[in-house]
C-alpha cells in the first residue's frame, strides 16, 4: 500500500544517465509525450531525431525545446526526420534516410499514434489507424533493426526499442 501514498522518487535530472554520443529516434516527437521525451533525452546529451510527418510542427517543437533549453541551440542535437507512418513506403524511406545519416542507433522510441477516427483507407489500402499505430512502426523498426544490432555489439552499448502503447481504438457496440 505504500506506493499509493508515497511521493514519486523518479527525477529525470538525477535518474537519466549521461547520453552524450548516443543517437535516438522518437516517432511522434512534435507534441505531447514525444516532445517531452525528446527534451529530456537532448538535455542529457543525446542526438535526437524527431520522426514526424509535418516539417513545420517538427521545427516548431525543436524551437520550443531550444527556447526552454538555450544550451541546446546550435548543437545540432535535434534533427527532423520526415516520417509518415500511414504510408508503409514512407516508413521504409524514412528509415533508409536515417541509415544514410548515422552509423549507430542506441534507442528507438515508437511513440506516434493515431486516435480513433473515421474508417479511412490509405493509398496502400490499409485502414489508417492500423497503418499508423502498428504496420508503419513495424516497417520502420525492422528497417532500422540491423543497425541497432550492430550498435549493440559495441562495448558498453545499451540498445533499446521502446513501444508506447496508444490503444485508442474503440468499437461501437451492436445490438
TrEMBL record:
The keyword Transcription regulation does not apply. This is NAD(P)-binding protein. InterPro entries: NAD(P)-bd_dom_sf (IPR036291), SDR_fam (IPR002347). SUPFAM superfamilies: NAD(P)-binding Rossmann-fold domains (SSF51735). Belongs to the short-chain dehydrogenases/reductases (SDR) family. It comes from the Eukaryota. Pfam families: adh_short (PF00106). One of its GO terms (molecular function) is oxidoreductase activity. It comes from Hericium alpestre. Keywords: NADP, Oxidoreductase. The lineage of its organism: Eukaryota, Fungi, Dikarya, Basidiomycota, Agaricomycotina.
